[in-house]
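Q: What does the assembly look like in three dimensions?
Context provided by user:
Components: three
Sequences:
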Amino acid sequence: MSQPLVLHPDRLFPADAATRAVARQLYALVERLPIVSPHGHTDPRWFAENEAFPDPATLLVKPDHYIFRMLYSQGVKLEELGLTRRDRGPVETDPRKIWRRFAEHYHLFAGTPTRLWLDHVFATLFNIDQRLSASTADRAYDVIAEKLASPEFRPRALFERFNIDVIATTESPLDALASHAALRTSGWKGRIVTTYRPDPVVDPDFAGFADNLRQFGELTGCDTGTYAGYLEAHRIRRAFFRAHGATATDHGHPTALTADLAGREASALYDRVKHGQASAADAELFRAQMLTEMAAMSLADGMVMQIHSGAMRNHNPLIYNTFGRDMGADMPTRTDYVHALKPLLDRFGNEASLTIILFTLDETVYARELAPLAGHYPALRLGPPWWFHDSVEGMTRFRQQAIETAGFANTVGFNDDTRAYLSIPARHDVARRVDCATLAQMVTTHRMEEDEAARLVVALAGSMAKAAYRL
Amino acid sequence: MSQPLVLHPDRLFPADAATRAVARQLYALVERLPIVSPHGHTDPRWFAENEAFPDPATLLVKPDHYIFRMLYSQGVKLEELGLTRRDRGPVETDPRKIWRRFAEHYHLFAGTPTRLWLDHVFATLFNIDQRLSASTADRAYDVIAEKLASPEFRPRALFERFNIDVIATTESPLDALASHAALRTSGWKGRIVTTYRPDPVVDPDFAGFADNLRQFGELTGCDTGTYAGYLEAHRIRRAFFRAHGATATDHGHPTALTADLAGREASALYDRVKHGQASAADAELFRAQMLTEMAAMSLADGMVMQIHSGAMRNHNPLIYNTFGRDMGADMPTRTDYVHALKPLLDRFGNEASLTIILFTLDETVYARELAPLAGHYPALRLGPPWWFHDSVEGMTRFRQQAIETAGFANTVGFNDDTRAYLSIPARHDVARRVDCATLAQMVTTHRMEEDEAARLVVALAGSMAKAAYRL
Amino acid sequence: MSQPLVLHPDRLFPADAATRAVARQLYALVERLPIVSPHGHTDPRWFAENEAFPDPATLLVKPDHYIFRMLYSQGVKLEELGLTRRDRGPVETDPRKIWRRFAEHYHLFAGTPTRLWLDHVFATLFNIDQRLSASTADRAYDVIAEKLASPEFRPRALFERFNIDVIATTESPLDALASHAALRTSGWKGRIVTTYRPDPVVDPDFAGFADNLRQFGELTGCDTGTYAGYLEAHRIRRAFFRAHGATATDHGHPTALTADLAGREASALYDRVKHGQASAADAELFRAQMLTEMAAMSLADGMVMQIHSGAMRNHNPLIYNTFGRDMGADMPTRTDYVHALKPLLDRFGNEASLTIILFTLDETVYARELAPLAGHYPALRLGPPWWFHDSVEGMTRFRQQAIETAGFANTVGFNDDTRAYLSIPARHDVARRVDCATLAQMVTTHRMEEDEAARLVVALAGSMAKAAYRL
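A: Here is the predicted structure of the complete assembly.
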């Protein structure tokens, strides 16, 4: 038996009638504002080539780690969801079967952000009015598949329909940025910018690091056998990224450790790690040193720096060996910022022209470390709740724990941080609704006046991100 | 002057009228459901012998560490509460005096779970309508004492009155399980099962460890002088426990550390610890290794594994030396899970037929570690808030911090985890009310539909625990 | 364009009408109660000399680290706010210009406690009815400046207007307490007591430590070249402080580490640190040992001991080198209590006649460590949320996370802990309102009856602090 799918107009607003009324008024100010997406993982080829998306399972299920980690935790094999094995062993290839398996387990998402995002996608993009379940799976599949084949669902048409002002993708320094280049000359007006994410040539533990350095040298004409040449390669490549719209860099490190070694020490460290056989301590120190080097380059070239730290990647060796990276088996870890960032901050923390945006997977640092740091250092801003914490309760905790010390002005609005393109409006809508709820509660408890809440909710919905990311 | 004692029918439901109405509807579905108690510390002799309980102080005050730790913190000596000194030194022996001392301090429990549990006991079991205080102490004592002497208050009668479906006790591998055996042949229909808690023969720091190993060998006919014989003794004893109803094991370790040593290393480690003179590091490593060995045995025999980690036992040496273990002086500590569990998970985390239920005293890991782990590994589930966190606010935090990432399906419903038999209905009632409140808020903020909340609240009230514990 | 400044009579009360009604009733009981301020940093000279306060910028902006850290984080130079450089380099000296700069940035404080405190000051003391902004800056300046020059705004007149029962200041052992002595003989009835804060002679990392020890010896006639003489100097100086009203000591340590060394070891340690050239480990161990020595002295002389641990001081070397200590660049760090306090507690934790009040900058310890410790050890009490956590959300979290385990009786009411004298009524008002809100929610969710909430809200507003601090 199927249940109706209803997107309630007051969803995520506080139940209290007076507070809900304020939340509604605030939401009316932001509901239709353009989307600013300064950090994410959509594929620039989508926009450059503007081909139709594939079937519903391949588009919505197979690439979504929130979905397949939940099903896996409840005993569904990743092979049954059609995920590609490294050994090319047999996996499910029928997208309808994959979709049915997902639909049968859709009840598992009750109370999770995935449910909020997907119901929004189903209702607003596909006019589906039945909750997904085993009994509604086929009908939903057919409706979605038909629409995905239509011109209105091509990437560029959706970009316009979604009212996206600007979207940033994320690329390796080794990426030729061909799609971005094609977009620039295509005549299409959609604004897609890249982001410089140098982990493949910064993290000695990255697969193929030594080979990456060799390519890095070839691409830039620099001698990456020396530290000076290696740094120069970064400068050249950053300029190339800026020419393709980049205003920011991004750094995904296991910890937030930074270092500020003397030149000779840094060179010697590079000599030890460049062959990809660094000790764990050397690898960590090199990543630390590179955060400070990147900050120095950001001060020079104006790129905003994002630090996403605290993920222990590939926690599950069976999954890693069978399926590879990014398969839902990354785990957050306890992360220090106050000590870890000190070397970088000692050198650059007082630079008001530098912007470093900090992200965390360890919520215990919101009130204890991140808000006090960002509420003091001119160079620091706080990124929104990230990954597992990009949820209604997670975003609420961030506001409750960070704002009283950091203020709103030291935060940067919302990031969707996703490759799930169709869900981008849903994610921004959830974030805007949570902001409305939070600000409405501040208004009805008389911690803030309505005019201030109105100013802030609009800023949080986009202009703050544009300003912080210099877009 | 005394105050009335009132159990409000809406207690613990949100104040907002619309949300309260939903909470009431949900509560109507679960209020009278049978109690499933898959983990606790009641004494099986109570049920086997079915004798009357002793006086009010001996039943309700002296064994309750929540009560005597609070009174002790405010300057009441444990001797004044009649707790037995190891040296058999003088302590209060008049139960009425102990009861009065407790009653005089009852105001200390305002805002604590103990107050909620005891008021429920007083009102529902003893029809007491005055709040406990110095002025009402004697009357309450008399009423309770009289009822406790009546047939309706014998353990089995209460078991039926409480509508308990099944209750699990917890025993040492060295326990002969005589009461459980007697219950099996008694003809009484109450379902009492044991749980295999091997700490006395697994933890080298346990008092009498070397002697425990000797007994363990005698009881099983195994040579516990060798690691192989020691492991075989576990297998034999686990089978004996299963024959007495056990479906689960339980492991109370200071940390969640696990290890997966090669056979020779594990044997050599056992040789070092078996005499009870292990170094701290060896003791920790042995406990770690044994969690993995227990998981291996669980995979073979189907027993669910519970890990209760993070308590630093016997923090107060004066109390330990004078009164012994479990005297309210155990303290939670910061606990890591992501790194600590990796050796065990590397080997068994992907086994969908294995169930390991994780508990913590460190709430900071709910969102950061436990929910991401349980939301990925098929073998993992999250136990409910434990010990100090088994409270209204504590249970609310668990739901707010764990569900968005783990989903409800990776949790296991409620444990009362108590030896305070009379309070078991109160504890389940508090948990059910908190679940109703939490789900009602999800409904009125339109994160969930009413039919889903209804399904979940019933599952959380019992069926989820039965399924998870294979009862 | 300016906006009205309105102090809503229901501010900080829950939005739900039923709960708000209870909060109002509770607030009526405490709104006008005298202020008890057992820990703070007002200057005793103000009261001894009773001179007019300086201009608005010098009184309200320049000494307030909450204000200047926020402006600094947004790119305002500390020189522009008139803060004194160590090198006496040029800074802004026109108080009106400083005030305008502050007023232009007042919107940054939306959602912060600073905003709540200052609006209360502006509205209640100066009858300002326009929100501070660039356009209202001059008018506000003029109004405040005029009033500050009037007799009604002298320190003693304000003390009476604020209805302060007692206020504690905080002094170094090297302070002659001249103002306190003058106050005692002045005939004025205001009760101002000192507090013994021995960090300058206890912390080997304190600037001028060796010289401080020399002065400490001179002041007391003790030979501070020996450990015995050094300890005796403390005893003498503590007695001197008690004679000036002190009932408490205060200890601002980077961590909560305690030690209980044998006499010979402690002496040897003192020999290593007394010249101010201790290793980091020796400095930490000496601070740890001194907490235990101070507890021993408190047991003897009855002084209440406060431990404020967890701040990493002077995180920003540029700010420290340019402007010195206490310039908004101190950062909280993760802090352990369960292990750190054990040596001290092993010796004195069971002493019911000793009171040690614990404070933290690491909220993760409220539920995990502090509440379980204070809910057991007779010597321990929990101080209110401190520094960055002395905010609406911060105080709410403390109640939600500590009370269920520690009970109200193991807490000590409110501390304003401030040098911002004019804001003291605002700070107590915020704390009282948060207590009313918290207790009202316990009443409307039927976790507590109204008579109990009424008793507790009055105790929390003052009598609990007076009792705990033995004032």
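Follow-up: The mean pLDDT of chain B is 97.
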